[in-house]
Recover the amino acids of this structure.
């Protein structure tokens, strides 16, 4: 995946991952009993899963924008 130049597009995956992690762990710990290992595992999986999914989607949406198809017969 090519690197995105916009600082805002670089920040979105982190913010989405933090938000999903907070809500997932709060939903998990809202019950009476919570296991620390399961809570940490859920937080880690939700953070990295969300980060890489959002980064992949941003790459799909904004990765090819502005590039034109190459013409093999064109010489510069």
């Amino acid at each position: 995946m090519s690197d995105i130049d916009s600082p805002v597009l670089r920040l979105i995956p982190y913010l989405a991952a933090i938000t999903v992690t907070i809500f997932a762990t709060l939903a998990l710990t809202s019950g009476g009993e919570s296991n620390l290992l399961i809570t940490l595992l859920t937080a880690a999986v939700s953070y990295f899963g969300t980060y890489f999914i959002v980064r992949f989607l941003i790459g799909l949406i904004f990765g090819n924008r502005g590039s034109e198809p190459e013409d093999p017969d064109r010489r510069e």
User: Anything to note?
Assistant: The longest helix spans residues 36-62.
